[in-house]
Design goal:
79% helix; mainly alpha; globular
Length: 194
């Protein structure tokens, strides 16, 4: 996952200044400048930060050794998700290159990510830390959808399968979230049956 994240970061050079022949910006020149531009740059700059912050925040050893730092970074991450990643994702979803199916998928992803971040923050404030960890892990899984989406795209390219992007917009976040919930369910059942 780290490798894909680094590859994503390397593509940023295609966006400063915008290269409308690059993979993601191809065909977006007619509506790029204006509100979309602000949403796009907010998204591509805040997204990687929230991924890296999430990785640090999920570390039990970092949390135990530096609890005040964990709280501060957690607040910054949640604010970044709620004020930058989610609104920019919602705006960009309106312009999904492959149409409404992908656009609705990305909009639902943005909303789900915001809900998980807000619930995680709320549970931390309430000192319900087990629930806090669950909500923030859900949030992190949703944030990782950008990486999963690129993996699906790469696999589609290798297999020479066309037209996968609209369904990948949904699979990239629903499948990992379902897997996470199933793992938790399995762990609950195995704990009860002991």
């Amino acid at each position: 996952m780290l490798q894909t994240t680094i590859v994503v970061l390397l593509t940023i050079r295609d966006y400063f200044p915008p290269n409308f022949h690059s993979d993601f910006l191809n065909g977006r020149s007619r509506y790029f400048f204006g509100a979309y531009q602000w949403a796009f740059y907010a998204h591509i700059l805040s997204g990687p930060f929230t991924l890296f912050a999430g990785l640090v925040l999920l570390s039990d050893s970092v949390r135990r050794r530096f609890p005040a730092w964990h709280r501060r970074l957690g607040r910054v991450q949640v604010l970044c998700v709620l004020l930058l990643v989610t609104p920019s994702g919602l705006w960009m979803a309106r312009f999904a290159a492959t149409g409404a199916v992908a656009g609705v998928g990305f909009a639902m992803l943005a909303i789900a990510t915001a809900l998980c971040a807000a619930m995680g923050w709320r549970r931390a404030v309430q000192r319900r830390f087990d629930e806090h960890r669950q909500w923030m892990l859900r949030c992190y899984v949703l944030l990782c959808s950008a990486v999963v989406l690129r993996k699906i795209g790469g696999l589609s390219e290798i297999l020479e399968v066309e037209g996968t992007y609209p369904i990948a917009a949904w699979i990239s976040w629903l499948l990992p979230l379902i897997v996470l919930e199933c793992l938790w369910l399995r762990n609950r059942f195995s704990t009860v049956n002991r």
